[in-house]
Write a structure and sequence with these properties.
The protein has helices at residues 19-31, 44-63, 77-87, 103-109, 128-140, 163-171, 245-256, 260-280, 312-318, 338-342, 347-351, 364-385; strands at 7-8, 71-74, 94-98, 115-118, 145-151, 176-182, 201-205, 216-220, 285-288, 298-303, 321-322, 353-357. It is α/β, with parallel strands linked by helices. Helix 2 runs parallel beside helix 7 and helix 8 (260-280) packs parallel to helix 12.
Length: 387
């Protein structure tokens, strides 16, 4: 049953190293003999490495409509999220987090006092009425400065946050709201303009767009807000240690290739054909977030009429299809998806669900083949359930 060649349909967990990025990194390693030099060194070799970092920083900044001096590179999106939260702890008196946030943010908030949670609607969008109510409670309690953290694109459903409505809710609250947007799943899939967003902080993860794993980004509208942190040589003194030169340079090369319109035109038909084929299969299922505006590649599916977990991910893997149960950071623990439960899913629906995330390298045949594999597993599991 095991298939040697797997079809990779889990790009939300990691897009894989882009061929262009791989080519450019190999090229520079083969031609630049000085690349061992420390970019903080004042000699010519160190400063030449620093020039490469400058190129990468400028490229990333241009990609997201930001200024280069507003970017701080980190080791991951998780570090970026938690650095922003940690650095704002001392100067905020209320905390608000979305119920559908990535675990790197949501779990961190569990340790903070006076945290309120903004729930999700059935279509996966944020409950703006609930957010207004939370902010009003904070105001009546005498809170002055509120830290709010939301995803720009939900990591499980692909639902896009309406920033225009979010801006209006914040402006009408009468509070000083510091907004953090986790844009890890937005980068490369939709056009990003950090300067025009209502956020003070936006965080990114490099391996979601084809850069090497181990690179993340913090964008700070005012980098001084990130104090106090460990002092060092990175990010205008905002992060300690020596820069991950190859990782950051790979991030710059990946940012060069970001083209959301081309991505959408290539990937959306693959996702839509897969969902239509699954609908035609007759298998009872639900596509979460289908009623809302989603990014082009993400399909979150629940299989209905199962009460206990039916190991879909493992069985699909045996048939040569790599999908996920949810966030890769939680993949070792099979439990009902917190995001789907927030959206009103029954426990069985939240357990018996998979996230399929397409990429430009996927073919129509991969999606159709996945439906055939799902049908085979579904037939097997329903026959096992019969008395």
């Amino acid at each position: 049953m095991w298939q040697k060649s797997a079809r990779y349909l889990d790009s939300n967990a990691g897009a894989g190293l882009d061929p262009y990025v791989r080519k450019k990194l190999i090229e520079i390693l083969q031609t630049e003999e000085f690349f061992f030099a420390n970019p903080s060194s004042r000699h010519r070799l160190g400063q030449k490495v620093q020039q490469h970092l400058y190129f990468a920083t400028e490229t990333v900044a241009k990609c997201v409509q930001a200024q280069a001096n507003q970017l701080i590179f980190t080791s991951s999106g998780t570090e970026a999220n938690q650095t922003v939260i940690q650095s704002c702890r001392s100067n905020h008196d209320a905390w608000v987090v979305g119920g559908g946030e990535h675990s790197s943010t949501y779990d961190y908030f569990l340790h903070l006092p006076k945290t309120a949670e903004v729930s999700l609607l059935a279509d996966g969008s944020h409950d703006w009425t609930a957010l207004r109510d939370v902010l009003e409670v904070a105001r009546t309690q005498g809170r002055k400065k509120v830290f709010l953290s939301l995803t720009w694109v939900n990591h499980e459903t692909g639902v896009i946050t309406d920033l225009a409505v979010l801006r209006q809710v914040i402006q009408s609250s009468g509070l000083e709201v510091t907004l953090h947007l986790d844009a890890a799943q937005a980068w490369g899939k939709i056009a990003l303009d950090f300067q025009s967003s209502p956020a003070q902080f936006v965080t990114l993860s490099g391996h979601k767009i084809g850069a090497p794993a181990g690179t993340g980004v913090i964008w700070a509208r005012n980098p001084a807000q990130l104090h106090p942190l460990i002092q060092g040589s990175q990010g205008n003194g905002l992060r300690g240690g020596t820069e991950n030169v190859l990782g950051i340079l790979g991030l710059g090369y990946a940012a060069e290739k970001v083209d959301p319109l081309q991505y959408q035109s290539t990937v959306a038909p693959l996702r839509n054909e897969f969902e239509n084929a699954l609908l035609d299969s007759g298998i009872l299922h639900r596509v979460w977030g289908k009623e809302a505006l989603r990014v082009a590649n993400t399909s979150r599916i629940s299989f209905l009429n199962f009460k206990t977990y039916q190991n879909w991910v493992e069985l699909l893997d045996l048939r040569g299809f790599a999908v996920s149960h949810g966030s890769a950071c939680k993949s070792k623990v099979v439990e009902p998806s917190r995001v789907l439960l927030q959206m009103g899913a029954a426990e069985g629906e939240a357990l018996n669900s998979i996230r399929v995330s397409f990429s430009a390298s996927v073919t129509k045949q991969d999606g159709i083949g996945l439906v055939h594999a799902i049908r085979e597993i579904h037939s097997l599991k329903t026959s096992e359930a019969r008395p």
